[in-house]
Structures are given as C-alpha cells and as structure tokens.
C-alpha cells in the first residue's frame, strides 16, 4: 500500500507541476487582440496571412484576430473600443482619427516605434496621423479615387481618356448616343455618391474652400456649394447616370461596367481587388478631369491606419506587431495583394499596370484629401449623405437638397 500511496503522491505532484508550468507559460505568453475591417475576400486573405506570419515569428504571443464587415465596423467602432480591451484596430486618417484622439479612445504610438517609422514611411502619410505632436496612427494603405472604365469599349467608340471638362462632357454624350449610360454610382450607403460631390467641389472651388466647408466654417448655403449641385444636376438631367444602380451598394455596379452597360464608375482604387482576374487587364483607371483649368488637381486618397485603443491591455506586443508590419517585405506585399498603395518610401514597381497607374495619379497630385466622411466634421456626414440621396432622385431639386442639409446639420449640432 505504501508503494501505491507513493505512486499516487508522485502522480499528484507531477500533475501539480504540469499545472504550474502551464500557468507560468500562460502568464508569459502575451495575448494580442486585433480588430480589422474587411471590405473584400482578397483583403481578408492578405490580412489573415500577415497575422499568421507574425504569429509564427512570435510564438510567445497569442494573436486573437477578429474581422468585421465594412458597414458594421464603421457604425460600431467607437462604441466597441470604448468598452472592449482591443490592442490594435483598423481605422481611418482624417477627422475620424482626430475625433478618436480628442475623446481619448486611442493612444499615441511610442516614440521609439515612431522614430523607426519615420525612416521608412513616406512623410505625407505619416504626417497625416500626427495630432498635437503625437502619432496616433500607423499608415497601412492608401489609394486614389478615379474612374474605372473598360479599355476595349473606349477603343471601339474612339474615346480617349478625358483631361478637361469639355472632354468629359464629349465622351459622356458619345457613350449615351451609343446606348450606354456614362456613369454608375451605387448610392444606397451614401459614401460612393459623396465622391461626386467631393470631386466637383474640389475641381470647381479648390481644396481650401473644400476644407473650410467640411470643417463647418462655411455653410452649405454658400453659393459656391449651390454651383456644385447645379453642375451635378446638369449631368443628371442629361441622363448620364445609370438609374438602376442608384439603389445598389458600391460593388453592385461593376457588373454593369463589365457588360458595357455603363461606361465609367467613380470609385476608390481598392475596388481593383474585386475585379475578376480574367478581365482585369481590360480595365483602365483615370483621375477626375479638370473642370476649371486654373484649379490645381487635388486627389482623394483615403488613408487606412492601425490605431492603439486606450483600453488595450497589451500595447507592448502591439508595438511589436507594428514594427513587424513596417518591414518592406511585409507591408509592400500586403498592399500589392489588396491592390492598394504602400505608404513606405521605397516601393518597387508593381507587376500590375493598373496599380502603377494609381501610384502615378498620387505622385502627380497637387494635394491630397481623405474623402468626405473621413474629412468632415461628424455633424455634417449624415445630413449631407441624406441630402445627396434626396437630390439624386428626380427632379434633382438643388434648393430643396441644400435646405434639407442645413436643417439636418443644425439639428445634429443641437441648434
């Protein structure tokens, strides 16, 4: 019996030792919680691959990667990081980043990491994340907005890429005469249609006016804003917009482009990731043409960033992840996979001519903006989206839309 007792004691001690060893191991292992917004299957594949490579290179860190669909993520982001311990989260540069910093829902990246980023990141992208001297975002990707078109269709109709307002109107009419709607916009969620407002305003009134308008310094009752809607109304009244696509989401309009039912789609370069490989070589991309020749060409270039939520419990390993991601072999490869532009200083030419055309647009831009709902004061976003939706419906009443926008902005501000 004594031998049995000794054996039982030894077994119990071994079990206790194993439990203690497991506990120590768990204590030593860091747990890194990551939340990421997914807008395409290609993006998800590229991101999961990146996370898996980091986890393999850092076996002492347990990575919990949670992915969210685009609209859900944007709608719930602030509430989520305010209550949950998230270490790294996807977000946007611009006013949306400023708002999270002002509410102290995110914290700055530490100086040692920032110093390393300054050595490898392009200055405009890193500068865009600096708020009151602190760097609040890690530049992940950016991309221009512009027109997608099918090159064989343009060749068939003898159409050249437009560079001026006259060219733009001329090819629009040529497409319409051929029985093809010149433009499609999936307006159900507001933001794709806001691109038309942004570009018409930037091309007619310039970046300084645009920024003051979006900050709330200039009201939407300003005559220069009305001039933007009048210009847009003229395009609508000419029948240049594909009406069935108005009730679709952004990606629902592209099949019309592939089938030559639509000539052009104004959309961010990220959409290139969803173009089927067998037709991608047929798709071209060009910037929104000049409307007033003396107004410099500002381009919309939304910048996606990673942030450190204040409630995160593992900022040490979050910084390890950022340093890993900043390595050219990692960040350049991720952006090449998702058809976006890497924010690094040294980026080799892409094997994809479509990607190189996007980078050329950004390189030639006089200045950059981040897109309406990333640049605008939060009180403006929903009212303007609602006003644009109302305006897109016949009879495209400019005065009614602008009045609605002003009333809703006042209500949002509690005035």
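Sequence proposed for the structure above (415 residues):
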């Amino acid at each position: 019996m004594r031998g049995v007792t000794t054996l039982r004691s030894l077994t119990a001690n071994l079990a206790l030792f194993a439990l203690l060893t497991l506990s120590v191991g768990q204590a030593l292992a860091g747990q890194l919680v990551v939340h990421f917004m997914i807008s395409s299957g290609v993006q998800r594949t590229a991101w999961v691959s990146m996370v898996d490579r980091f986890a393999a290179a850092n076996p002492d860190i347990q990575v919990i990667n949670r992915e969210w669909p685009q609209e859900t993520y944007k709608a719930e982001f602030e509430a989520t990081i305010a209550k949950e311990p998230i270490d790294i989260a996807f977000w946007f540069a611009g006013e949306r980043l400023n708002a999270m910093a002002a509410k102290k829902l995110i914290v700055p990246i530490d100086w040692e990491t920032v110093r390393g980023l300054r050595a490898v990141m392009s200055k405009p992208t890193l500068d865009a994340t600096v708020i009151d001297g602190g760097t609040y975002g890690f530049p992940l990707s950016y991309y221009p907005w512009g027109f997608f078109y099918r090159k064989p269709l343009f060749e068939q109709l003898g159409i050249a890429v437009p560079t001026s307002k006259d060219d733009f109107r001329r090819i629009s009419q040529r497409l319409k005469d051929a029985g093809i709607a010149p433009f499609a916009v999936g307006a159900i969620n507001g933001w794709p249609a806001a691109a038309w407002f942004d570009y018409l305003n930037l091309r007619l009134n310039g970046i300084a006016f645009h920024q003051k308008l979006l900050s709330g310094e200039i009201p939407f009752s300003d005559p220069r804003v009305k001039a933007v809607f009048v210009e847009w109304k003229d395009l609508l009244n000419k029948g240049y917009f594909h009406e069935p696509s108005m009730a679709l989401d952004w990606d629902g309009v592209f099949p019309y482009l592939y089938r030559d039912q639509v000539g052009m789609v104004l959309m961010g370069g990220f959409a290139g990731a969803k173009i089927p490989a067998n037709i991608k070589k047929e798709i071209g991309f060009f910037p929104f043409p000049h409307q007033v020749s003396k107004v410099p060409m500002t381009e919309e270039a939304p910048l996606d960033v990673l942030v450190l939520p204040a409630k995160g419990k593992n900022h040490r390993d979050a910084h390890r992840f950022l340093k890993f991601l900043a390595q050219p072999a990692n960040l350049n490869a991720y952006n090449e996979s998702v058809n976006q532009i890497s924010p690094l200083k040294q980026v080799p030419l892409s094997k994809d001519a479509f990607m190189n055309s996007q980078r050329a647009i950004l390189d030639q831009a006089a200045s950059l903006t981040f897109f309406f709902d990333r640049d605008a004061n939060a009180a403006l976003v929903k009212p303007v989206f609602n006003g644009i939706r109302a305006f897109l419906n016949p009879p495209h009443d400019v005065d009614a839309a602008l009045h609605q926008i002003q009333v809703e902005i006042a209500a949002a501000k509690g005035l």
